[in-house]
Known about the structure:
Blueprint: H1 9-32, H2 37-40, H3 42-59, E1 61-75, E2 79-82, E3 87-92, E4 99-100, E5 105-109, H4 115-133, H5 137-140, H6 155-172, H7 176-224, H8 230-300, E6 301-303, E7 308-312, E8 321-322, E9 327-332, E10 337-344, E11 357-362, H9 367-370, E12 373-384, E13 390-395, E14 414-426, H10 427-441
Antiparallel strand pairs: 1-10, 1-14, 2-9, 3-5, 3-8, 4-7, 5-6, 7-9, 10-13, 11-12, 11-14, 12-13
Amino acid sequence: MSEDFSYPEAAIIQPASSATADDGSAMREMISNRPHWLIRNGNLILLFIVGLILAFTWFVRYPDVIKGSMRLVAVNAPKILVAKTEGKLERLLVANESVVFKGQPLAFIESTGDPVQMLHLHNWVDSMVEFLENDSMDALFRNPLPVCNDLGDVQPNYQQFESAFQESLQVLANGYYQRKKRALKEDLAFLSELRDSRLRQQQLTRKDFELQQIEYNAKDSLAVQKVIAPMELNQERSKVISKEQSLEQISAQAINDNLMEKNKVKEILDLQKTMNDQREKFKSALFTLKSSAEKWLQQYVVTAPEDGKVLYTSFLQENEELSANQQLFYIQPPETIYYGQMLASQTGLGKLRPDQKVLISVESYPSPEYGYLTGRVGYIFNMPTAKDSFMIKVDLPHGLVTNYDKVIFFRNDLDAEAEVMTDDRRLFQKFFDRLTALFHTN
């Protein structure tokens, strides 16, 4: 049994014609509606954005940078003071950031001697050395030797010097040798006067002898003529011989006076040699004491090597145990010049010029917290180093003050990274240079 399912023709065509009508109406609606403003003005907006970017690249400058490593160097750098021996910090003599002068004691380290006595003795010895250099021995002994009985290891040298000092007082000061030397010089003066007197006496006696000789010659002529008797001539001859003997006696006395004068000179020379030997002995004892005192002070007394400001390296307090070579103080001189030694590679070296700005980041002081130092290119060395790098001297006009107004404390061989600002060019120029390079490459 079968059923014939058939549909009317109108029923079949109706859906197709309905779909066609819907598509047509949608197309007409799309064509009739105006597009959104973004679609209408898209080209203008894109052109405006591109122009704005180009204007931004024209007004914004971005310098070329040459990077390199740097080491900070100082002329008359801060001096670090360390403990030369282990022991307790017996006494602190200055406060942190105090202004001190050269040679001023800063701290005493525990020792077997009294540092105050040692400093007093050392100052006296220095003044004595100055007197010796000026050859002022009299002024040397007008300053009495300080009494010291607690010098520790230096006490034996002090006692030896004290003995040499007392001997020198007798020899070199107003003691026996000085008085004897003055007496010998007075004897020389007397002998010199006596020699002059002998000389005048000899001249007078010679004149008298010459007159007596003339008279004898006259009498001799008369005796030849038989005018006078031979006996009278003999009397005149006796007078001539007597005058001649007087001349010989005066000559002998003059010789004796000369001999006595030479003996006095010899005594003075011997005495002077004794005094010189004692002087050298005194100098030797003085410099031995000076050397031992300085060695003791260097070991147990910390002193300022120059004028400046003292800075503690750590928190210090009395009776603190110190180890050998422990850092204690820095001495900041009143005038210190800082500069940088920068090593730059050959890349971009031709762009470097004197007086270009340099930004320096010290490794020990992070730049986000402390900022950076500013410098200027001072000098560019022409010859490369062993590593084919070039040395650049960077001046620091503001010293070690960062752009955050923070002071970086200098230590030897502080490492840093440096950036030299070379050509301060616009971003547009950089972009144009890239396009030009691409064009020439193609």
